[in-house]
Amino acid sequence: MSPAINLTRRTLLVAGGAGSALALAACAPDATNPASGSPDAGTATPTEVATLTDIPVGGAQAVMLNGSQIIVSQPTEGTVVAFSAICTHKGCPVQPQQEGLACPCHGSLFDTATGAVLTGPATEPLPPVKVTLNGDKVMAG
Ligand code: FES
Predict the structure, then answer these.
(1) Structure pTM?
(2) With b meaning 16 or more CB within 10 Å and e meaning fewer, what string describes 101-135?
(3) Would the pLDDT of 20 be above 90?
């Protein structure tokens, strides 16, 4: 083989190697892109989960966020707060009731406005979930 041919083959191999590296880079997760993370990483773009008018003032509504149930409450007109709907006792989903957020498994009751334990056996409050209002849209995440 002539040196020119070897040079051409080497050039092709180098170019192929660089192409492979670029292809790998294109497939690698992008740490700066929150959309590439897990759906409940907490850095995702806020998602509309409810409409303010659907949540009773002084009450709450159970909604889904990225496949997980959360509770959105409207303690006073025009303000919203949210909590994980997973009971801190043994993990059953709580439901909004007249008297608070009730767990059907062992009877824990949580405050609708704060997520605090009102009645055990749970001892820890429901973890808060960040929510904001965009007009009458409740945005979470
Ligand atoms: S899981 Fe909710 S009270 Fe036990």
Answers:
(1) 0.69
(2) bbbeeeebbbbbbebebeeeebeeebeebebeeee
(3) no
